[in-house]
Amino acid sequence: MMGNNPRRKLLLSRAGVESLLELPTSIQKQAVRKMRTIEAAPASAGYPLRRPLQGFRAIHSGRYRIIWQLLTLEDDEKVAEVVYVGIRSEGDERDAYAEFARLFGLPDF
């Protein structure tokens, strides 16, 4: 939670939690620390992804990637929803972006 505002600025989807729990404990801790960066500034942390992952953002946590989307609540407040955490391994079927695209039925990355 940030400052005097009790509302969270970071949520984890079921897929976000499940993907995080599949990682080694030390990597989980590292990812949770990095998620605090997202929580502090959900609209500007990390970088926007391009097609076919457009609409999502990602941030590096060592060799791992945390992928989230920015949600707008009814009161126009911005909240980040972490949807996937995984290792970046270009060309590997377990690559974070490829695995994320598969999970969410997006075109091949």
Would you write up a description of this structure?
This protein has 109 residues and is α+β, with helices and mostly antiparallel strands. The chain has one domain: YaeB-like fold (2-Layer Sandwich), CATH 3.30.2310. Helix content is 29%, strand content 28%. The chain is built from three helices and five strands; from the N terminus they run βααββββα. It has a five-stranded mixed sheet with strand order 1-5-4-3-2. Strand 4 (64-72) and strand 5 form a beta hairpin. It is globular, with a radius of gyration of 14 Å. The model is unreliable at 1-6 (pLDDT under 50).
Summarize the structure.
The chain is α+β, with helices and mostly antiparallel strands and 109 residues long. It has helices spanning 14-21, 25-40, 96-103, and strands at residues 10-12, 47-48, 56-61, 64-72, 78-87. Helices cover 29% and strands 28% of the residues.
SSE blueprint and pairings:
Blueprint lengths: L9 E3 L1 H8 L3 H16 L6 E2 L7 E6 L2 E9 L5 E10 L8 H8 L6
Parallel strand pairs: 1-5
Antiparallel strand pairs: 2-3, 3-4, 4-5
* Biggest sheet overview: 5 strands, mixed
Mean pLDDT: 88
Low-confidence stretches: 1-6
Write down the Rg: 14 Å
Proportion of residues in helical segments: 25-40%
Give the beta-strand count. Answer: 5
* Adjacency order of strands in the biggest sheet: 1-5-4-3-2
Which fold name corresponds to the CATH topology? Answer: YaeB-like fold
The rounded distance between the terminal residues' Cα atoms is 34 Å
How many helices in DSSP terms?
Answer: 3
Query: What is the CATH architecture annotation?
Result: 2-Layer Sandwich
CATH superfamily: RelE-like
Topology pattern, helix = H, strand = E: EHHEEEEH
> What characteristic shape results from the CA principal axes?
globular
Beta-strand portion reads: 25-35%
CATH first level: which class? Alpha Beta
